[in-house]
Amino acid sequence: MDSTLERGPAWLRGTRGRVAGIAAVVLLVVGVAVSCANAGEDGPSLPVFGGGPDAGVTGVRAPSDATGGTLRVVTGEVDNLDPQRSYLPGVWNLMRLYTRTLVTYSTEPGRTGELVPDLATDLGTTPDGGLTWTFTLREGVRFETGAPITSRDVKYGIERSFASDVVVGGPTRVVELLDDPANPYAGPYQDETSGRLGLASVETPDDRALTFRLRSPQPDFPYVMALPSSSPVPADSDTGADYGRDPVSSGPYAVATQDDVTGIVLERNPQWDPATDEVRTALADRVVVRTGMTGVERDQALLAGSADVDVSGAGIQAPTTARLGEDTGGEVPLGDRIDEVPNNVVRLLALPTDVAPFTDPACRAAVAAVVDRAAVQEVLGGPAEAERTSQLWPSGVAGGPEDPDPAADPAAAEEALATCGQPAGFDTVLAVPDAPVGVAVAEEVAGQLSRIGIRAEVRPLDAPSFYATEVGNPDRVRDNRIGIVLATWTADFPTPGSFLVPLVDGRSVSTVGNTNFARLADPVIDGLIDAARAAAGDPEATRAAWREVATAATATGAYVPLAESRVQLLAGQRLRNGVVMAPYTSYDLATAGVR
């Protein structure tokens, strides 16, 4: 699947408004844990450093080059420590500590959405507009076993994603880009070629060189190589589905232990050579990750000093937000420890163009005209929680179209209804994942539609299967007369193509796991996508071309963007070098230190 959806990832699920009833109990429980933690290596009293609001967004919060200590991390769900099996950005952030890729995200403040070389010597070269890519590995890089990391290890790690019967749960972009539909590759566990030749589209002429031959040009291919699923795995250490229990490190730390109760402990990897790594500073001696914590538990740990970083990507909870303006009695105000960022998750309405009456663009225009985004924003918690948007372009990706932020226009909506032959309105079904916030937004939108005679039945559907089978199957959508889908959408990496193509490219429509929820199939838009890909190499021309794609797609009315989520990150008391890693909506663990 091209993008991570609000369908079950812990970094998006259940983060707001559900905690008031248990807050007091959690305070007591966490308070005991905190008192024990503060009596340890750091003493009973900790100085609290602020730095001011958003200090870690464009700068470094509490800069320091001091080494040592234990970095204490909290999070919710951890799906898998196997780099080819995780689809949670918070886990991807953690993997930067023990997993290296050909390229990775920059640690420079304000530019963390940009790529820099990691295992490779550069960002890759392509002689033919993105159809063929070549990378060269650095010299001297090693696994924790002491074995050198070779091009064949990188290839093998990528091949594991093709073993859909064994390695499941992670991104499959490499499969889409590198597989041969006429002769599909089944992965390394079923490779019966003589001498195990492996995936034919990846060539390794020597220990340091890799050449990728893609099915079609992909200018964003280096971003695919930045996913942990593209990291090296030594074949002789691969334990298949169990590899996540003890993954072999290529980074500055190695997984020492993991337990459902005590969490995950990472210790220094003595084979890591900082001279070969321009990204990671690895200041702490040890990293301890407490997993499975609720949002309130994570907040309380940060507030009390028993945690330094929350990598869940969910940000602080409503009770903590309410405390931001409190008088702290001379101590550093909580607001000075907050970094507020958009998380590039856009909530939108998709109007399937093959479900009547939304086969008519004017009926779709009626919905777009009557939507009141300000009211939706309030349901989502107000400006601190959501930013209104009318564009198919997340604010974290630079160069998007200007957002006019139009107000609701019932008169224009009624005129559009008359144009599409439905002056009295019509009945339809509004499908939404069965989660409190989503259902509340759906009910708000249904109320707005009712003002012009559109009677939308809000139908909450099973959240875990919502995108895979409920709205991911076009036949099922038509059979159930679903005319509106309330969805959330974000991309695997921060480029306009990664965000737009799965939604609006008519050639991306599929019968299983379909992500073009509106079934938008417009040859003009498909041509604009091809032109945008062809413009790669000229950043300004590329952005302009993708803006055309976004503008044309929005004009069809097949998608009605509503709001983009915002997240408030709280820095722990001991956190040093707090740099907001935009792609993961958290502080960068690769450069974080502690007092």
Question: Can you put this structure into words, describing what you see?
Answer:
The chain is of the alpha+beta class and 595 residues long. The protein folds into 2 domains: 70-286 and 572-587, Periplasmic binding protein-like II (D-Maltodextrin-Binding Protein, domain 2, 3-Layer(aba) Sandwich); 342-567, Dipeptide-binding Protein, domain 3, CATH 3.10.105. The protein has 17 helices and 20 strands. The strands form 6 sheets. It has a 6-stranded mixed beta sheet with strand order 12-16-11-15-13-14. Strands 7-8-9-1-10 form a 5-stranded mixed beta sheet, covered by helices on one side. The chain has a 3-stranded antiparallel beta sheet with strand order 4-6-5. A hairpin with a 3-residue loop joins strand 7 (253-259) and strand 8 (263-268). Helix 16 (523-534) runs antiparallel to helix 17. The protein is globular. The two termini are 40 Å apart. Residues 1-46 have low confidence and may be disordered.
CATH architecture of the largest domain: 3-Layer(aba) Sandwich
Query: Based on DSSP secondary structure assignment, what is the total number of beta strands?
Result: 20
Q: What's the N-to-C terminus distance?
A: 40 Å
Helix count, DSSP H or I runs of 4 or more residues: 17
How would you state the average pLDDT, rounded? 89
Summed up, the domain count is 2
> Regarding CATH, which class of the largest domain?
Alpha Beta
